[in-house]
Amino acid sequence: MTDDTDTPATDGGTDTEGADSLALDPWGSSTVSDYRKLFEEFGIESFEDVLADVPNPHYLMRRAIIFGHRDYRRVLEAMRDDEPFAALSGFMPTGDPHIGHKMVFDEIIWHQEQGGDATALIADLEAHSARGLSWAEIDEHARDYLLSLLALGFDPEEGTLYRQSEDREVQDLAFELGIEANFSEFQSIYGFDGETDVSHMQSVVTQMADILGPQLDEPKPTVVPVGPDQDPHVRFARDLAARTRYFGVTEAYASFEVASDAERAVLRDAYERLSERAPEGATIRCLHAAQLLEGGLDAVEWEDPAPLDDAADGEGAEATVLPKLNNAGMEPLRPRVRFLDRNATEEAFEALIDAVAGEKRVFEGHVDSFDMDRAAAEALAREVEVDHGGYGFVPPSGIYHRFMTGLTGGKMSSSVPASHISLLDDPETGYEKVKAATTGGRQSAEEQRELGGEPDDCPVYELYAYLLAADDDAFAERVYEECREGERLCGDCKEQAAELMREFLAEHQEKRAEVEELLAETDIKLESPRRR
Domain limits at 253? Predict the structure, then answer.
């Protein structure tokens, strides 16, 4: 969820200690100096790979400010097919909402405009437990976040607003999810230790319930727009979603169970290779696959294949699956979809067996279907689960935006007022902060004209790209090119940016005043009964 503490710099910002460690800490201030490393180390995918499939992409997407995603394709498929999907993000009210938060506000609103069920929550339990804020302080900041969200275009009649402390349904779900979590995971994912408050750990499980909560009424793809420092929450929520499921669905090729996707890939490859070589009318058997793995296609005995004398030598997936094939002997090797019993009640498992049409094989812990494809099997498993009291959660997705560099260079920090612009700043204050900002310019105007500026290392250019150019890509590109070519000097550039910032803040605060009544009409409680 979105924090209000020190915000890491973009990859064009100043390097700081620990910048390359890539320890993604939802409550810390580590920086990301190379976003590409996130693809390699954490499995985040490039957003560029899915951009062409996004309808009416937001300018944050078009400008690669949203740089990565985790499993966003399932959300885009629902969007394309006019099926239900949801978007959710939370805000920890530890200070004023600022222009960094506006990115997340905009992403939630954009998904709402695309037809998604949009949810924005106030992470007040997290603020109280992790940051030690009083409930009075939380109330004040929460109201400011909600007013800015509504002023930017969030529709409360079509979307959902709530506070963690006031939503009993979320708290109940958090309790159930906590059964699936253990302390060793909190240690490995978040670095918690014996000094960590229990309430802090509880707030994490509450955030898992926040992320999965939009699916309580109906399982559906759900995206969480955040900075990459919040990815641990997305990954943990995906794990918990899987653990609560009644059934797992995988591909399989024989009655025995495999230990990994790598073993499954070995079986898939063996079946495909044998299918190309098999004599007409021949049945492909497990022993054929064992002989293939041991000696290649030329070693396969299509008639009366003999078991291997030793099928346990070697390393890797081939070596571990080989004895399983050997032990299965003459059993046919056939592709099928497998339903695994994970947490199903006896009644639900029996209902699944009855629901699987066509040829099937029923085992103690799984059911194999030979006539269904993977997508149909997953839909059936989810339907049976929900019909029998399960959640049927779809693994949540994430999209990740770059962090804004502080106006003074380095990190944007709520504790350094000059480094950020609050959405509550007086327009004149916003103007002065931009005028005083660090730039990516050269030492002199002459050098700037000769060598050009460095917009990729300029906090002021980021203001244009992230906020001030709004939906006008041509304007953002023109500012970039004029700076790089030396046609735009820093003084004039900052003056234009400062004027635009003053206009934005004045307009935004006028809209905030207009939505005061709209906020009062929502069900969200603005004053907590808790006092400490």
Answer: 248-387
